[in-house]
Amino acid sequence: MDAGGTSTRALVATPAGERVGLARAGGANPNTHGTARAGRELARAVGAALDQAGPRAREDVVAGAIGLAGVSALRDDRVRAALVEELLLVGVPADRMVFVGDDEVAFTSGTPEPDGTVLIAGTGAIATRIEGRRRSRSADGMGWLIGDEGSAFWIGHQAARETARQLSRGTALSPLARMVAKRVIPGRRPVQGREHLPEEHARAFARTLTGRPPIGLAELAPLVSEAFAQGDEAAEVIVNAAAGHLAHSVHQVRTPGERRPVVLAGGVLLGSAPVHEALTRKLALGTAGSPLSTAGCTAGAAAWLAALEAGAPADDTRLHAVFTAPTRDGRSDAA
């Protein structure tokens, strides 16, 4: 399973990598959604996948791996026990399941190597050093309030600030500010007249955003890529700054001169060509000679880790490719 903050994906596969059950459920990060909901979503996803796999699937399970966002919550034995209990209720042999971090699964989805670095830039952002397929250290991942620099939230926040600045000036809006204002306050126009200042229009924009969940600013990130394609100067600044923050996080967890692989994952890196290209250029300055790859199917990567637990050879790169190939709809599951 790959259990993130937004969705959970469960895959049942044979030791040869044949996919016999695949199901989705809601987010299962215990830090974000609470232990009870996380347990229910884990159970719902894996239970449905096992139902697809056939009537004997539960008793035939030999190993399982759960890549869990917020895996640090399992340091609390009560949280771990509650999640295990939910799995047991749907007939999952919890004693054959191992919990790992979602960053460990994301890394594995992009390479069969045991050591390297994974950079995840989605709603949030974190860079993790992987050793022996396990997390050894990380940079950022501090959440939207004090970190996650270069993430979709960070990019959307910068876009909103730039839009407010332009609205305050009362001059013609750039492509970026025009798109953001249209998304946030559609149909509204500055009130004409001497007594109405441009900054009041900006304050109306700000009040609208303030009344919404802050993390929703991540939804503005794709507009930056669109404006970048139109030559918007502010969008270019935001894209390059985001790439710089992400590259810095990668360099924080690597040692100078190492040649271990770097895996890129998350919606920003897989969905924004401008950020991906700018990041690749910046990474080349400090990771020359390191293989750079994008994440594959993360649920498949978790299944491959389970296969290793069951005795599959770690050096079989063909088998790894079978497990981590994107799903039929082209999704990597790491976006």
UniProtKB/TrEMBL annotation:
Residues 2-279 form the ATPase BadF/BadG/BcrA/BcrD type domain. It comes from the Bacteria. Signal peptide: none annotated. Coiled coil: none annotated. This is ATPase.
